[in-house]
Amino acid sequence: MTHAIVAQQPGGPEVLDFAEIDRPVPGPGQLLIKVAAAGVNFIDTYQRGGMYKVPFPFTPGSEAAGTVEEVGEGVEDFAMGSRVATAEGSKCYAGYTVLDAAKALPVPDGVDDLTAAALPLQGMTAHYLINSSFRVEPGHSVLVHAGAGGVGLLLIQLLKARGARVITTVSTDEKEALAREAGADEVLRYDGFAATVRELTNGDGVNVVYDGVGKDTFDGSLSSLRTRGSLVLFGAASGAVPPVDPQRLNAGGSLTLTRPSLAHFLGNPQERLWRSTEIFGAVADGSLSVRIGATYPLAEARRAHEDLEGRRTTGKVLLVP
Fold first, then answer.
1. Mean pLDDT of the chain
2. Dist. CA 174–CA 256, nearest whole Å
3. Quick one: which of 217, 225, 220 has its CA closest to 241?
4. Which residue from 32, 47, 67, 144 has the fewest beta carbons nearer than 10 Å?
5. What is the pLDDT of residues 120-150, one digit of tens each?
């Protein structure tokens, strides 16, 4: 037996129950992972709340790190005792989870278990955002919303290493300090941010906005772009964006709007390995810092969701079985 978080129906954090379940068994091509820590992400709250449709009863969690305890038939790349992580798992809010070996990421020496759990989803998200959704080049001006969040802090560091000018938004003085520590050039509050971005760019606007906030920032994000700029809308922390008239993109200066998801940027083993190797390697060599803002016992998953949705967290939120 083991423990897991189980929701019987969609709803608020109160639907998350700490339950005893049978320990899962790996099938062909799969691994049984003893979970060291699981990442808590906004997608988990969207699924729990019913914004994204999933079958119930439902155990959240696509991100985790841990140790291989059993190896299914046909698996050759991993052995018992291997340390792995994933952003493409399922039912990771648990003591044990089963994972397709093809979606397991090797964890290098020098990266501890908590950091390994904190990195895959947000790290590979940051990687595809700046390399594939919109390729940032040295000298570009970039607006990153929620600069003290898990993705935001990683984005700021990666963008500065790329040679970009980084403007970011935060909601508190504490979060401003974190964003500045990560290297942000300008840190703004959300009120009136679009006008301030224009002032900071001599009226031109930024090349790209990375917006994981959604409804509350969308209009301002469009207004912050220069002619032929790109809005990369990769999340909806404040709620879903209402339908958009494409004519707004024309009127704004032939703008580009894209709504990507990580799964579409992990299309094959080579792409998955490229992104994970670069991100884990940057942490291992000390050039990328991961902030773990809060850890909660697995049994306190409700509180973790409440704090994440209430914007009371910074950096990465983890559950520890």
1. 96
2. 33
3. 217
4. 67
5. 999 999 999 999 999 999 999 999 999 998 8
Q: What is the pLDDT of residues 230-289, one digit of tens each?
A: 999 999 888 889 999 999 999 999 999 999 999 999 999 899 999 999 999 999 999 999
- 10-49: pLDDT as tens digits: 999 999 999 999 999 999 999 999 999 999 998 999 999 9
Closest C-alpha to 211, from 191, 187, 240: 240
Q: Where are the alpha helices (DSSP H) in 163-263?
A: 173-182, 193-200, 218-223, 247-251
Contacts (Cβ under 8 Å, ≥6 apart) of 189: 169, 170, 171
The pTM score is: 0.90
Tokens (6 digits) for 10: 């969609």
Rounded CA gap, 8 and 15, in Å? 7
Strands (E), 107-173: 141-144, 165-170
DSSP letters spanning 116-127: HHHSHHHHHHHH
Residues in the chain: 321
Q: Which two tokens stand for residue 317?
A: 């939120």
DSSP three-state, residue 240 = coil
CATH of the domain at 9: 3.90.180.10
CATH code of 158's domain: 3.40.50.720
The predicted pLDDT at position 314 comes to 83
Q: How far is 178 from 215, CA to CA, in rounded Å?
A: 24
Tokens read off for 26: 């790996």
Report d(CA 193, CA 187) in Å as an integer: 10
Q: Both 137 and 222 in a single domain? A: yes
> What is the extent of the structural domain holding 82?
2-119+290-320
- The H or E element spanning position 320 is strand 316-320
Strand partners, 149: 315
